[in-house]
Amino acid sequence: MPIYRIPLRDWVDAFVDYVTINFGVIFDAVNSVVEVILNSLAGFFLFLPWYITLALFFVIGWRIAGRNVAFFSVVGLFFVLNLNLWNETMNTLALVIAATLFSIALGIPLGIAAARSDAAEKILRPFLDLMQTMPSFVYLIPALLLFGLGRVPAVIATVVFSMPPSVRLTNLGIRQVPEDVVEAALSFGATPRQLLFDIQLPIAAKTIMAGINQTMLLALSMVVIAAMIGAGGLGRIVLNGITQVEVGLGFEGGISIVILAIILDRITQSVGKTEKEMV
Predict the structure, then answer these.
(1) 242-274: string of b/e by CB count within 10 Å (b at 16+)?
(2) Contact yes or no for 158/239 (Cβ under 8 A)
(3) Fewest C-beta atoms under 10 Å: which of 45, 65, 160, 261?
(4) Which of 69, 104, 100, 87 is nearest to 259 (CA)?
(5) What number of other Cβ atoms are within 10 A of residue 141's Cβ?
(6) pLDDT for 201-238, tens place per residue?
(7) b/e sequence 46-68, b meaning 16+ C-beta within 10 Å
(8) What does the pLDDT look like over 147-199, one tens digit per residue?
(9) What pLDDT is attached to residue 273?
(10) Residue 276: per-residue pLDDT
(11) Could you tell me the pTM of the whole model?
(12) How is domain 23-48+85-277 classified at the CATH fold level?
């Protein structure tokens, strides 16, 4: 007895065709905005002389995360410079920052909505589960169809892949604010807006920053996969090492990604910590 096959593939193809045909103007606008932001970030990092960039990372690392991170940032980035991968690293940094900014801009408001409404949380939960469990290669297909080859679809795919932690941890942080604190604020006449911005978000700041940290690291983990559709940067170096079977080239790109990941991780982890908490 033949088993009826659900035409899921056909439904997805039809949906993508419909969206492409009817919402092409919107995607063109999104493409333009992302391209401008990405080009601005990449142009800024590439415009700065390498020694200025090292100094900036040293100052930021020292002020936020302590002297150990500051010195590691300088040594690590100088090592990348010595490998002649500076431009690729700056392009990767621009892509990660752009994707993280978009993820935060979308994720934190969604997390706030989920924290303030159980119904919103129930609606978002399956979508977040899908986004976190779907193989990352799959995100490249709709991004490629809707935006073509280049860095813009790479950023879009990275945003979809990396956004869930910022939503989940924003939701978690706000829900963990003690009830007595919320009740006290309401009893003193705090409006919902004051309650959110003056009470809940400051108390939940560390949890929200943990979500931003995870979002940034997930964005960085996508750079190699995103290189398959034209993201460039260090991901292209690793991809070339794989396709050309050049182990050394792939290792150089990989270790540069690791160095950048450690620097960004330590700095974002330390945001909001006191001086005594710094490593």
Answers:
(1) eeeeeeebbebbebbbebbbebbbbbbbbeeee
(2) no
(3) 261
(4) 69
(5) 14
(6) 999 999 999 999 999 999 888 877 888 887 888 888 99
(7) eeeeeeebbeebbeebbebbbee
(8) 878 888 888 888 988 999 999 999 999 999 988 888 888 888 888 888 888 88
(9) 62
(10) 41
(11) 0.86
(12) MetI-like fold (1.10.3720)
Stretch 66-71: mean pLDDT: 92
The pLDDT assigned to 223 comes to: 78
> What residue segments make up the domains of the chain, in order of their start?
23-48+85-277
**Helix H segments across the chain?**
8-22, 24-47, 50-65, 67-82, 86-116, 118-133, 140-147, 151-162, 164-175, 179-187, 192-194, 201-203, 205-221, 223-226, 233-243, 247-270
Distance (Å, whole) CA 226 – CA 107 = 21
At residue 233, φ and ψ (nearest 5 deg) are 70, -155
At residue 56, the pLDDT reads 94
Return d(Cα 122, Cα 200) in angstroms, integer: 21
Cβ contact 189:197 at 8 Å: no
User: What are the C-alpha distances in Å from 6 to residues 11, 25, 149?
Assistant: 9, 32, 31
pLDDT, residue 110, reads 94
